[in-house]
Design a protein that fits this description.
It is a single chain. The protein is an alpha+beta fold. Helices cover 33% and strands 26% of the residues. It folds into two domains: 137 residues, 2-Layer Sandwich (Fructose-1,6-Bisphosphatase, Chain A, domain 1); 107 residues, D-Maltodextrin-Binding Protein, domain 2 (3-Layer(aba) Sandwich), CATH 3.40.190. It has seven helices and 15 strands. The radius of gyration is 18 Å and the shape is globular. Strands 4-3-5-6-7-8-9-10 form an eight-stranded mixed β-sheet, sandwiched between helices. A five-stranded mixed β-sheet has the order 12-11-13-15-14, sandwiched between helices. Bound molecules: D-MYO-inositol-1-phosphate. D-MYO-inositol-1-phosphate binds next to strand 5. Keywords: Hydrolase, Magnesium, Metal-binding.
């Protein structure tokens, strides 16, 4: 089977749009089905049905592939292609009838993300990217905003579900907020990252994401000219992801690094 990024992207975009329509139809009247890491980390019936649809469509088209999904875990294949799926990123927004939620599908080939789709059904926007092929929103090429000084930057962030982590995230935010133009907590990491790609925000940082939250969107934002990384030159990890254009990236990094924004408590002196 073809593993060309453009071919994987076409399939992912079709599946993400169909999944987005299914989720959008089911949003009204949705309730909580289950909880995960904490009572506020919820799963709806739609998280599960949408992921099932995505798995079925991807594996029908490409039976040898692997799939990692937020709700259903790993299914292994031997083709060298792995799909990373978040059926609804922004589940709390989805539950409350809010707009910022997305279906996120990334295709990894031999361990590298080569194609990514983030579909935002409420806005009828589909973000797409292939490695080296640029980023698009519903077909229009994306380019991030030019760098601005940190105090002029609109910065998106998000919070984890554990109370211990949140308490320290609030401490970090206490220092960040007076240093920037303003903060947005959109409620979907995938949409936040795409908003930086789109020029609707200048930067984004968050501690504690899972692979499925950011795999597709981090390719999209990088292909729009944004630098994505962690602290001290390391790549982005679940400990911390920072996304901003070069220049602003370094300024935000230098604010977050001494605060220990990649941990759940203050850094130890020395
Ligand atoms: C969450 C969202 C949220 C972010 C959390 C994620 P979910 O994903 O992306 O914006 O702050 O860290 O867990 O649970 O809605 O798929």
């Amino acid at each position: 089977l073809e593993a060309e990024p453009a071919h994987l992207l076409d399939l992912a975009a079709d599946v993400a749009r169909e999944a987005g329509q299914l989720a959008a139809r089911g949003q009204a009247g949705i309730g909580v089905l289950d909880t995960k890491s904490s009572p506020t980390d919820v799963v709806t019936e739609m998280d599960r049905s949408v992921e099932e649809l995505i798995r079925k469509r991807l594996l029908n088209a490409r039976p040898g592939d692997s799939v990692l999904g937020e709700e259903g875990g790993t299914e292994s294949g031997s083709s060298g292609v792995r799909w990373i799926v978040d059926p609804i990123d922004g589940t709390v927004n989805y539950l409350y009838g809010r707009d910022e939620w997305a279906v996120s599908i990334a295709a990894e080939s031999e361990g590298e993300v080569v194609a990514g789709v983030v579909a935002v059904p409420s806005r009828d926007e589909t973000y797409t990217a292939t490695l080296g092929g640029g980023a698009f929103c519903s077909g229009t090429p994306l380019r991030a905003r030019d760098a601005v000084p940190l105090e002029m930057a609109l910065v998106c962030t998000g919070f984890g579900y554990s109370t211990e982590r949140r308490a320290y995230q609030a401490e970090v935010l206490r220092t960040v907020l007076p240093r920037v133009r303003d903060i947005r907590r959109g409620g979907s990491a995938a949409v936040d990252l795409c908003s930086v790609a789109h020029g609707r925000a200048d930067a984004y940082y968050e501690r504690g994401l899972n692979t499925w939250d950011w795999s597709a969107a981090s390719l999209i934002v990088r292909e729009a000219g944004v630098r994505v990384g962690g602290l001290r030159g390391a790549p982005a990890t679940p400990d911390l992801i920072i996304a901003a254009v070069p220049g602003l990236f370094e300024e935000l990094h230098d604010l977050l690094e001494p605060l220990g924004a990649d941990t759940d408590g203050p850094p130890h002196a020395g």
